[in-house]
Amino acid sequence: MKQIEHESYPPLQHVLRDLRIEFEMRADGTGHVWLPVSEFVRNPTGSVHAGVLATLVDLMGGGLAAATVQPDWIATADLTLHVLPRPAGDEVEGVARVLRAGRTTAVIEVELHDDRGALGIATMSFARLPRRADNPVLPTPGVGGRGTMALPDSHLTEPIVDRLGFAVVDAASGAIELPLGSYIVNTLGAVQGGIVATAAVVAADTIVGWNAGHVVEVCDLQITYLALVKAGPLRTTARLIDPNTADVSILDSTGRVTTVATAVAVRPA
Amino acid sequence: MSQFDDPDAGRSVTRYLGVTLREQAEEGVVVGTAPAGRHLVDPLGIAHAGVLLGMIDSAGGVCAGLASLPRWIVSTNLVGRLVPRKLEGGVVLRARVLRAGRNSVVTTIDARDDATDALLADAVLTSAVLEPAGGPPNYDRPMVLEVPTAKTELADPNSFYGIRPAAAGVELPLTDTVLNPWGILHGGVTTTLVESAVRHTLGGAHLTSVVLHFLRPGRVGPVRTVATWIGSRPDGELLRVEVRDLGAEARTMAIAIVSATPRGTSS
């Protein structure tokens, strides 16, 4: 196992280390990613929290897109995730492939499964950007085997939503807050894309569950990134389209809408 | 080369969808209106998802195009949530720009029943900005794109476009009817191909969520579309749909991830 080290990213205490995700770029152009499913990334029913799956696919999709467009770099433009809400096995694997790599964009698809079969599917679009000096250098696909950002003592000690620090401000309007800190930043010092997606999931779970009067789990997420969240706390507002579907806006502390999302949350079987 | 100066070339789909588009004084907003028509709905009276998404693609695309002038746009992906309910009147669309960047434009579009104001669909369209061969369309501002009302009753979308069942899915020859002014398959036909393939696989369905990535243009045909079932969920079925141009080395033109209720529901 190769530990991925970079001069400044991620910090020693970081969610991408604590999730203990492993990944590998293969010579055939596919990317593979593995998530050990601890109790702290599960919903009460045993399924994996959609925000964690979004973080998983964002990490793998971003890595594969960046490797594909080298020496250029990428920024996530949108992410969609569709999950089959059922208890997951001990490990979730994602297999990513490039659907298109053009002059200005790249499109990636990630299929998710565990030892019982399909768990979901995700797609992502990335804008292709000129390389900056501080962009990480990625390993050549097919060289180096599995890697991880986890350090030997990296792990979660409480549920992921609690560890990230989400606070519900007003459940009826899907208003939640997330303080910014080094634990959740990306290479640009903004909130990591998977964590922004997690905020959309928490907001949708909150407003749909509050209106339904019972616990729900997000199974569909469609998210469009408009700007980085650099000024915290991150805040959300939401409105219901129908009893199971919420439109979520994610704002920074200046009130700027940085991200829009639509999420479907259902009562678990 | 585009055919925007020819008033007839590549207009069949636009006329079939019947959406008149008007730019509003409010910056970055385009409003579309489509009169009621039996071709818009299925036998249960529910709007065809493919037609609705085609309207959304048109309204969002023009809205994004106006925001990118003197360049123009091509749709890259469309994500939409649909509410399958009985359509009482025509369709009103409202598209506005969320973000207009140098390389891409993001628009949000909602579609409502003009008789009840009920929400039919809510979508986000992302478009790539490009330098169009032959230049962008030349519109007076504020732009009005009037579509003449059909004088006769129109056929259902599959019949009008020429979509037919084929091995494991549906197939479409690339005739002039289904092309846009750029001479490639119209995005509004791709959305109907996706709906038809899902219905083919499930034996009838109403789409509730669609993520559609336009990957490459369709130029040769026939175009084959196959929906593959992924799994069941409390809110319906999950499928992956692939659209391929068989005449162009079967390259993938588009993929979609779709949630659908197998027998459909109305509200």
List keywords for this structure.
heterodimer; A: 269 residues; alpha+beta; B: 267 residues; 13-stranded antiparallel β-sheet; 18% helix; globular
Series of secondary-structure elements of chain B, N-terminal to C-terminal? HEEHEEEEEHEEHEEEE
* Overall residue-averaged pLDDT value of chain A: 93
Number of helices of chain B: 4
Strand order of the largest sheet of chain A: 1-8-2-3-5-6-7-4-11-14-13-12-10-9
Separation, N- and C-terminal Cα atoms of chain B: 45 Å
Number of strands of chain B: 13
Shape type of chain A: globular
Instruction: Report helical residue fraction of chain A.
Output: 10-25%
Q: What portion of the residues of chain A fall into strands of 2 or more residues?
A: 35-45%
Gyration radius over CA of chain A: 17 Å
| Structural category of chain B | alpha+beta
Taken as a percent bin, the fraction of beta residues of chain B is 35-45%
Can you walk me through this structure?
The complex is a heterodimer of chains A (269) and B (267). The radius of gyration of chain A is 17 Å and the shape is globular. Chain A has 269 residues and is of the alpha+beta class. The model of chain A has no long low-confidence stretch (mean pLDDT 93). Chain A contains four helices and 14 strands. Chain B is an alpha+beta fold and 267 residues long. In chain B, 18% of the residues lie in helices and 39% in strands. Chain B is built from four helices and 13 strands. In chain B, a hairpin with a 3-residue loop joins β4 and β5. The longest helix of chain B is centred in the N-terminal third of the chain and has 20 residues. At the A-B interface, β4, β6, β7, β11 and β14 of A face β3, β5, β6, β10 and β11 of B.
